[in-house]
Amino acid sequence: MFDNKKFKYAAYYAIGVAIVILIINYMLVDMRTQPIKYNEFLKMLNEKQIEEVQVATDKIVIIPKADAGSGKKVLYTANLNDPQLVETLRSSGVTFGAPVENNNPIKSFFWNWVFPIILFTLIGRLIFGKMDKKFGSGVMSFGKNTAKLYAENETGKTFVDVAGQEEAKDSLVEIVDFLHNPKKYAEIGAKLPKGALLVGPPGTGKTLLAKAVAGEAHVPFFSISGSDFVEMFVGMGAARVRDLFKQAEEKAPCIIFIDEIDAIGKSRDGNIGGNDEREQTLNQLLAEMDGFDSSKGVVILGATNRPEILDKALLRPGRFDRRVIVDRPDLKGREDILKVHIKDVKVSDEIDLTSIAKATPGAVGADLANMVNEAALRAVKNNRKVVEQEDLEEAIEVIIAGKEKKDRILSAKEKKIVAFHEVGHALVAALLKNTDPVHKITIVPRTMGALGYTMQLPEEEKYLVTKEEMINEITILLGGRAAEEIEFNIVSTGASNDIEKATQTARNMVTIYGMSDKFDMMGIESVSNRYLDGRAVQNCSDKTAAMADEEVLHLIKTAHENAKNTLLENRDLLTKIAEKLLEKETIMGDEFMELVKEYQGIELEPENTTEKDDVSGQ
Ligand code: ADP
Known about the structure:
Elements: H1 4-32, E1 33-35, H2 38-46, E2 50-55, E3 59-64, E4 74-78, H3 85-92, E5 95-97, H4 105-135, E6 150-152, H5 166-180, H6 182-188, E7 195-199, H7 206-217, E8 221-225, H8 226-229, H9 236-251, E9 254-259, H10 262-265, H11 276-291, E10 298-304, H12 312-315, E11 320-325, H13 331-342, H14 353-358, H15 365-381, H16 389-401, H17 412-431, E12 438-442, E13 453-456, H18 467-488, H19 496-511, E14 525-527, E15 536-538, H20 542-569, H21 571-584, E16 586-588, H22 589-604, H23 609-616
Parallel strand pairs: 1-4, 2-5, 7-10, 7-11, 8-9, 9-10
Antiparallel strand pairs: 2-3, 3-4, 6-8, 12-13, 12-16, 14-15
Helix pairs in contact: 1-4, 5-6, 5-7, 9-11, 13-15, 15-16, 17-18, 17-21, 18-19, 18-20, 19-20, 22-23
Bound molecules: adenosine-5'-diphosphate (ADP).
């Protein structure tokens, strides 16, 4: 096959040269010839200034004598079909006749055939070359790998760069060793897996891990995304797979990393009509994985967040038979990831990463890396040389709720509603047992739409949630609307997000976690896409689903009532804290708890001190 780029340059060059030759030729002809009028020609004949005359059908070429004063130029004039011309010429005594034909057959063959063919081929190649680029695929070089194959000889990443994924790293150490020394394994007859599948939610460090494996083993890293294989033309994807493996085998030992492998590896069954292109690509991938000699040291790492949709053929032994789970990091994992990223940033000595890790349950590596960067940007904005704890704390909020939107002006009435709404959440959280402590209440609007929010922080990482805790969560969520109803006797749109979350939690309790009396431990829905949005799939009859809806409604109604009653019983406290919040716009957890305790102390001390302990223990 041609090397497209070199060929293109050669084509430009050749066309350029041809054009220059034509121009020069034209100019030379122009310089050597000169038109004259017919009567001038007759005059020259008369005055014997002409050496030779060549009569063609359309023109008469005149070669003047050297002393005729026209230099060395050949003259010509139109042939007027003058019947006397031959007679005149004869009588003047000049040499005359028809023009001498250039009958060099090789030369004329070149100009008539070879030159036009070369010229048109070059122009054609150039035009197709352009189309090639436009469609991102080889029109002329069908099957050539023009996908965005990203190859690195040294990734520069090691396992030290990947924090909080100890189990995943442990499973990959063996692969690193194998790449270091494939012979050791071949000698004993051990076969190492050809491929491993990295499974986990987006941003948990799957790509990073694959790079680290290549970096640890000091082998080249080929990376391509599954979606790059799927092309408009049937057969292109398969050709690309072939090409990829060919290149990789030349560079073995090496790592091939296929991101979003589900784009090609989607299960083929239940796919009536099918997608021919994807199927062919998948078949080619399977064939290549079976075909290549693993003792050479090519290891394929695939990444996906939808393992359940992968074709079983892809997962059978000898292909992607290892599954490495790269899940969301836990508290310690998050702290370690923060440590990795904070290394590149100048920080003050008072930084407490544990508290930041605590405040970010559910965050993945990519979020945490982003947070550190946000904090650094904020420090620069505030003209500081180092990142402070407050920068990191603000960065968390920026990522959760967006930047502060100070220019959003709320009317006094709206502001008051928002304040009561937020204090409603916070107060219900503080007054119920077994809830996470309130960390911050604010009514400064944020760019992502929140007019205010209440932040609770768990004291420790939780892996199990009890029924009571889930009911509390719903009650806290509904506390915002309850406060609005109590204070203003209105309902506003401010609770839409709370409603959505509360309903989802109540639904999960009934349909997935077996927490309702009516359905006992019957599963009504199951979770698909565990690593993505965790959408639930209904697996019951419509009648059961309708009954489940009733249960959900019952849970929500009870929680709503509960929230209302809790706040009604503490209405003075609600008003007091809401007024404080209106005045200060942000109240931190400690200050909030002090207000609650102070109120509780006055109220409860004479009667029941244990009750007070319960509440203050929140
Ligand atoms: P994925 O491939 O799982 O979607 P990436 O590997 O592309 O995620 O992660 C994106 C970025 O997030 C990485 O470049 C890195 O900066 C950061 N990151 C993610 N996970 C980790 C981790 N476990 N340790 C350190 N950094 C991480």
